[in-house]
Write a structure and sequence with these properties.
heterodimer; A: 187 residues; alpha+beta; four-stranded antiparallel beta sheet; three-stranded antiparallel beta sheet; 2 helices; 12% helix; disordered N terminus; B: 815 residues; alpha/beta; seven-stranded mixed beta sheet; six-stranded mixed β-barrel; 26 helices; binds iron/sulfur cluster; binds FE2/S2 (inorganic) cluster
Chain lengths: 187, 815
């Protein structure tokens, strides 16, 4: 009887990860690879398995350093990738505190920039602090928690959970909503 | 703070999930979806799944993705199963696009597991002991039949007033319009009836039909093949979303120009400018209600320039003067183009004065529509909707628009068509309604004036969707309360005592109300019996979309609780009527209620639609999948139903002599009573419209957290300077009031709104715009919902929920 992280299964999993790391697509997975096991490994359990395999009920997110507070300019989004390199996002210092804002001024937020309608890459309009989608004209308000102002998505923009440490380093450690184009935020 | 779903992964449909064809049941477009259902204890894997794609890879733009809103756990054959409802890439209507409404079909299903849509009715209910109590079908249907049979036999069938939906999709469709139609138009001949969104039983587009031009004559592909798209009184990006995105946008990319006739700058105008470029979009921002003057001037210009299609006019339109004189049933004469021009001729300058737009722009519109292009006829597709259907002088205005299409030969041809955009899908199959008459009874006024004794209501909520609603509600409640009091007084007595008490109360001016709905509606608060219905996909349902595309949307889950398809509820009423009438010794009348031995919705379909269209069966429709067939179906060949690409492509129209008629649409200012006075008296025009987010799904979305978070209150769009005038800020609640009544809304600052012109959400459960609309209708009892003027005052500062939301412009702004 094998446990979830032993035997062939684990080797399969590791080889897959290694391959991805090799092609440079998993640079954020360090420290997050075990956490990422939840869905992926459960999904390949052999049908003959007699004993239920344990799996966390919740996806564990990597804690990734995105930037330092000092790197940010007000109302100029910085491109980020979270939870992995295939998931583009933005880190923005808004210049005024918002609900859920991080950092000393409570004004730093981060979002996925894949439109949750059909996955087009959103463009930032600094004039009114919105993300706009060239796909089908949806728009999202980063000053209101990524709320869809108008559009076709059936959710608001996935917002990344931020932690800022004593040195001003900003870490992403979670997401509020499912990111477009994946069945699990951590693949 | 915006609503967060807090979902970071979803179950994966396994390869052997059961797949069902689904046509989105919300709006007219009827987008194709696939519903996957699978056992609760099974799942697919990243690499082996129902989508047949490698889900361990990030999907690219436009790829397949199951959003959390596309997932739920529902009952299927009594078992809880996983459900995923995902847009279908192979459906030609939407090519894989979902919308903010359709892509939430799954989460807007009732689920006892995830707790969604617990507002859905599970059981019939009856007024007992001062409240509505759940009961059995037999108990509820027996009371309906007992009271109905007594009243219509002691009086007449005219004492039974019926409000019934006439649409497809949702809980309508050919099955359910047939069930209700057979009951009220065949077993009975009910003439005091109305449709879900207007106060009479009538067409919304009498004139185009009288002219021989059915209102859904093109196919969506025509937008991709045309030179000019003319959109009148409509906002298709919000209300026909994937028609706009998947057909109009490609048309613009193919070079089509776009003309909008619309007092309001909508997101459709903005998006068209983005796609086609500002130079290729002409927005004729007319004074409200003046569309007919504009159309007449465009037609006059086209005729003067000789841009008419002479051959088409000679071969396909009426030639000899007047074909139909103006009379009580025809608010304008119909006939030859020469005859029509006597009434329609209007100069560019005169129209410019009436409409408030430049004469040069009217001339430009005429050129964009009709000026030959490279020596050939220019193609133009024309689409219209509520802006003129529920606008000023419905009959003549629509007639004037169709005149332009006929004069330029733009009907029945590639890249042409003059069509309604529509609301729900269509799905009308009923016995003749000729006995209703024309003009039909103004049913709301009949009820307000004390007429009718019983009111059967089928999925209509007049509290939200009627005009003069303040008065209607007051009277309806008062009359139904008389019956409630009588029922309360008879509590504890026999059934006979109860029926006697009800009949006595209705004879004294009371109203016995039977409400058939899927949720607890607002008018349902006045009901004495509530019958619980189910929706599309909780039953099999056939409908056609705005290009007449007929599909079977398949059942993939059980009706919630003990609810039933409307057609089977109608059958139940008929069966109980037959039994009760026989017991009353009225065997002849009872016999009229035979022929309802339907076990399933398919039986109702075969009894109705199939009898008129013998080629069409469930099995054949299932095989045609999400692309279905364009009605009318003309044959069955090689295992496929054969449809009709466009109506009138042979140049023969829907009149006795097959010749189309022009409409003598003489401009006469405000047609409906009281509009001119109201406009002069009040400061603000209270326009109404629909919002992308919950159009055609608002009844469910009042119980949807994502939607309620965005708009905790229905909005009123106002120019910021108007807001300053009355001292309100974003999110503040205001009262809109005039002599007809009052209602409320949340202020949404809208810089593009013209001064003095506001827009409210039509049909909102939390602020009925109908409260302030006067009772004015046209000669054929079409309501002019769009024309209301009122004053506005502040009620309160923005409540906490309103403070938290975004009040930014709804217009896409490229960075
Ligand atoms: S556009 Fe209409 S039919 Fe299509 S998904 Fe949206 S609501 Fe449904
Ligand atoms: S992908 Fe963004 S609006 Fe469609």
């Amino acid at each position: 009887m094998q446990t979830l992280l032993s035997g062939n299964l684990w080797e399969d999993y590791m080889s897959r990860c290694t391959k991805l790391v090799d092609v440079g697509r998993r640079q954020f997975l360090r420290g997050g690879s075990v956490a990422a096991a939840g869905l992926a490994t459960a999904a390949v359990l052999p049908a003959a398995q007699a004993k239920a395999a344990p799996a966390n009920a919740q996806v564990d997110y990597p804690s990734n350093r995105l930037a330092n507070v000092a790197d940010l300019t007000v109302n100029e989004p910085m491109d980020i990738e979270y939870p992995d390199a295939d998931s583009p996002g933005a880190l923005i210092k808004l210049g005024q505190a918002v609900e859920g804002g991080a950092g000393p001024d409570g004004d730093i937020v981060a979002f996925s920039t894949l439109c949750p309608h059909k996955g087009w890459l959103l463009a930032y309009n600094s004039a009114d602090s919105t993300y706009n989608c060239p796909g089908h004209f949806s728009r999202f308000d980063v000053e209101a928690g990524g709320q869809q102002v108008w559009g076709h998505a059936t959710q608001n923009l996935p917002q990344f959970t931020l932690r800022v440490d004593d040195k001003g380093d900003i870490f992403a450690e979670g997401a509020s909503d499912l990111i477009f184009g994946r069945p699990s935020n951590v693949l | 703070m915006a609503y967060k779903r807090q979902i970071d992964r979803l179950p994966i449909p396994p390869k052997d999930a059961t797949i069902h064809n689904v046509t989105c049941h919300y709006c007219i477009v009827g987008c194709g979806y696939k519903a996957y259902t699978w056992d609760r204890n099974k799942q697919g894997t990243l690499t082996d799944n129902a989508f047949g794609i490698d889900l361990s890879e990030q999907q690219g733009a436009d790829g397949t993705w199951m959003a959390p809103s596309m997932y739920n756990v529902v009952k299927q054959n009594g078992k809880d199963v996983h459900l995923a409802v995902v847009p279908d890439h192979d459906c030609v209507v939407n090519s894989g696009l979902g919308s903010i409404r359709g892509a939430r079909m799954a989460e807007n299903r009732p689920s006892t597991v995830t707790g969604t849509q617990q507002q859905r009715l599970t059981d019939p209910m009856m007024w007992r002991y001062g409240v509505l109590q759940p009961t059995s079908w037999d108990d509820a249907l027996d009371l309906v039949a007992q009271v109905t049979a007594r009243v219509v036999t002691e009086g007449s069938e005219d004492d039974l007033v019926v409000s019934m939906f006439d649409h497809g999709g949702s809980a309508g469709g050919y099955e359910n319009t047939w069930g209700t139609g057979k009951l009220y138009f065949e077993s009975m001949k009910i003439k005091n009836c109305r449709i879900h969104n207007r106060p009479a039983y009538n067409s919304e587009v009498h004139s185009t039909r009288d002219m021989g031009v059915g209102e859904l004559n093109y196919q969506y592909k025509d937008y991709e093949l045309t030179d000019t798209i003319m959109i009148v009184g409509a906002n298709p990006l919000e209300t026909q979303t994937n028609l706009f995105l998947n057909h109009m946008v490609p048309g613009m990319r193919n070079g089509a120009r776009v003309i909008f006739v619309e007092p309001r700058r909508t997101v459709s105008v903005n998006a068209s400018e983005e796609v086609a470029g500002k130079d290729n979009v002409l927005h004729l921002q007319i004074n409200t209600g003046t569309d007919m003057a504009l159309f007449n001037a465009i037609l006059t210009e086209i005729v003067a320039k000789g841009w008419v299609d002479k051959d088409f006019i000679a071969n396909s339109t009426f030639q000899d003067g007047i074909a139909q004189a103006e009379d009580a049933g025809h608010p304008a004469a119909l006939g030859s183009i020469e005859e029509a021009m006597k009434a329609c001729t209007m100069s560019l300058d005169e129209a410019a004065g009436i409409c408030g737009v430049d004469a040069a722009d009217i001339a430009k519109a005429a050129a964009w529509i009709a000026e030959p292009k490279d020596g050939a006829r220019r193609k133009c597709v024309t689409a219209y909707e509520k802006g003129i259907i529920w606008g000023n002088d419905n009959y003549r205005t629509i007639g004037a628009l169709v005149n332009i299409a006929l004069a330029t030969g733009n009907v029945g041809r590639e890249g042409g068509g003059v069509c309604r955009l529509g609301g729900h899908q269509e799905g009308y199959y009923r016995p003749s309604d000729a006995h209703v008459g024309r003009p039909a009874t103004y049913v709301d006024q009949l009820l307000i004036n004390g007429g009718g004794k019983i009111h059967h209501i089928w999925a209509c909520d007049h509290y939200k969707t009627t005009l003069n609603a303040s008065q209607f509600k007051r009277v309806h409640k008062k009359r139904s309360d008389m019956v409630k009091e009588a029922m309360d007084a008879a509590a504890g007595g026999t059934r006979e005592d109860l029926i006697n008490a009800i009949v006595d109360a209705v004879n004294k001016g009371g109203l016995f109300v039977v409400d058939v709905d899927i949720i607890d509606s607002q008018i349902g608060q006045n009901a004495h019996v509530v019958l619980a219905a189910c929706e599309s996909n909780e039953m099999n349902l056939t409908s056609m979309n705005g290009e007449r595309r007929l599909r079977l949307s398949e059942k993939y889950m059980d009706p919630f609780g003990n609810s039933k398809p409307d057609c089977l509820i109608a059958a139940g009423i008929a069966q109980h009527m037959e039994r009760v009438l026989n017991a009353m010794g009225k065997a002849d009348y009872a016999a009229q209620f035979q022929g309802y031995d339907w076990m399933t919705e398919e039986d109702a379909f075969m009894d109705g639609y199939n009898k008129g269209n013998p080629e069409v069966t469930y099995e054949r429709l299932r095989a045609m999948g999400n692309n279905g067939v364009l009605e009318p179906v003309v044959g069955f060949e090689n295992g496929m139903l054969v449809g009709t690409e466009r109506l009138y492509s042979n140049g023969e129209f829907g009149t006795g002599d097959k010749k189309a008629r022009f409409c003598a649409a003489g401009w006469r200012g405000w047609q409906a009573e009281g509009k001119a006075e109201e406009q002069a008296k009040y400061k603000y025009w209270i326009n109404n419209g629909r919002a992308n987010i919950f159009w055609q799904s608002q009844f469910l979305d009042q119980d949807n957290d994502f939607i309620q978070d965005r708009f905790p209150f229905p909005f009123i769009e106002m120019n910021p300077a108007d807001m300053a005038d009355i001292g309100v800020g974003p999110g503040d609640l205001v009262e809109i009031h005039n002599a007809n009544g009052a209602t409320q809304a949340m202020v949404y600052p809208t810089a593009t709104a013209r001064r003095g012109e506001t827009l409210m959400v039509f049909g909102s459960p939390a602020g009925s715009q109908g409260n302030v609309i006067n009772p004015g209708v046209n000669e054929l009892v079409l309501p002019d919902y769009k024309h209301t003027w009122a004053d506005i005052r502040k009620i309160s500062d923005a409540p906490a929920t309103a403070k938290a939301i975004s009040f930014k412009s709804k217009e896409y702004k490229s960075a």
